[in-house]
Fold this sequence. Notes:
Blueprint: H1 2-9, H2 30-53, H3 63-68, H4 75-96, H5 108-118, H6 121-134, E1 139-146, E2 149-156, E3 167-173, H7 180-183, H8 187-194, H9 200-210
Antiparallel strand pairs: 1-2, 1-3
Residues 36, 40, 91, 173, 175, 177-178 line the site of manganese (II) ion (MN).
Amino acid sequence: MATDEKEKTMSFELPKLAYAYDALEPYIDARTMEIHHSKHHAAYTNNLNAALDKHPEIKGKTIEQILADLTKVPDDIRTAVRNHGGGYFNHNVFWSTMGPKSGGEPKGPLSDAIQSAFGTFAAFKEKLSAAAVSQFGSGWAWLSVKDGALVVSSTPNQDSPVSQGMTPILTIDVWEHAYYLKYQNRRPEYIENWWHTINWNEATRRFEAAK
Ligand code: MN
C-alpha cells in the first residue's frame, strides 16, 4: 500500500474550485461549469497521469517545468503530454483567474503594465477579445508575460504559452465545451460575458510572480 500512496501523491490532481459551479452565473452557467470541470478537466488530468505513469522519471516535476520544454518529454508520450498536460495546466489558470463578484478593471501594477503595453484598458480588452474570437476552432486566448513585457496571444487545441517561453497571467477557454450549452455558436457573446468573471487579484498575483 505504501507504493500506491507514493504514486498517488506524485500524480497531478484535479484542483478544487475556489467557488461553486453556479457562482459565475449569469455569465457562465452552472451546468457548463460542472461538466467542464468534473468531466473535461478531470479527463485531461487522468490522461496526463496515465501518460506519465509510463515514464516515472518525469514525475516530481511541476506541470510548468514539463510543458516548458516538450522536446525533453519521451517520444511515446510527447503528444499526450502536450494535449493533456496542456489541458491540465490551461484549465488551472482559467479557473483560478475567474470568480464571483469579479470583473471590472485591474488596479495597481497590472493596470499600469496594461496601459504601458496596450495604451488603454479598452484597447487591451479589444485585443484580447479579438484574439479569442478569431482563434480558429478550439483553443485559448492569453495575456502573458514574455521577456518582461505583457503580450496577447492565442493557442490552438491545448497548446500552452508556457511551451513558448511565456508566463500566462490570464486566459479564456474558447473550446465549444466552455460555452455551447448557454451560448451555442455565439462565441463573441460568451467572451463579452467572461470579462465580468475575471479575478484581477489573482491575475495581478500571477503578474507579480512572473516579473
Ligand atoms: Mn476547456
